[in-house]
Give the backbone structure.
Amino acid sequence: MTLQECYAALGGNFDDAIGRLRSEKLVQKFVLKFLNDGSYDLLCQSVDSGNYADAFRAAHTIKGVCQNLSFVRLQDSSAELTEALRDGVWSDQVAALYQRVCDDYHITAEAIRALAGQ
């Protein structure tokens, strides 16, 4: 899989990422490091334990990383979850947004693993 194909699979904007980071080599370097970021694991653990303040921070971090890498699909869903968690209250709406982030994260992770040849 090429880097452009990876971006298409994960719902990202390859041209925007190149414009921001200026080289395909640098974009690929940071894309491959994405799976080592612990923010998604922290989000899941925080939601499971009912610590919505930490869940907010984790969702906010995911949003920022995705914005920097132009992972549009996951950026959009994590941005919505961030705003929904801002007041620290869990609801059915927050649960649905959390599930969307989980789904989008898995799509993103699978595309990156395919890029890495895993």
Notes: The longest helix spans residues 92-116. DSSP finds seven helices and no strands in the chain. The chain has a mean pLDDT of 96. The two ends are 11 Å apart (CA to CA).
